Amino acid sequence: MHANTVDNRLERIAELTAVHPRSTRGIQLFGAALAVRRSLS
Fold first, then answer.
1. Does pTM top 0.90 for this prediction?
2. What secondary structure, in 3-state letters, does 7-33 show?
3. Which tens digit of pLDDT belongs to each residue from 1-41?
4. How far is Cα 18 from Cα 11, in angstroms, rounded to an integer?
5. Which residues contact 33 (CB under 8 A, 6 or more apart)?
6. In the chain, N or C: fewer CB atoms in 10 Å?
């Protein structure tokens, strides 16, 4: 995947969630969300 694609997707995630995935808080929140999602499967 091209680096610009990753940047664009991260920016879109920030727009949709109001959480910046590059921030420490964002990394923690998205990590917790992934852990919850995995535990429900």
1. no
2. HHHHHHHHHHHCCCCCCHHHHHHHHHH
3. 999 999 999 999 999 999 999 999 999 999 999 999 999 98
4. 10
5. none
6. C
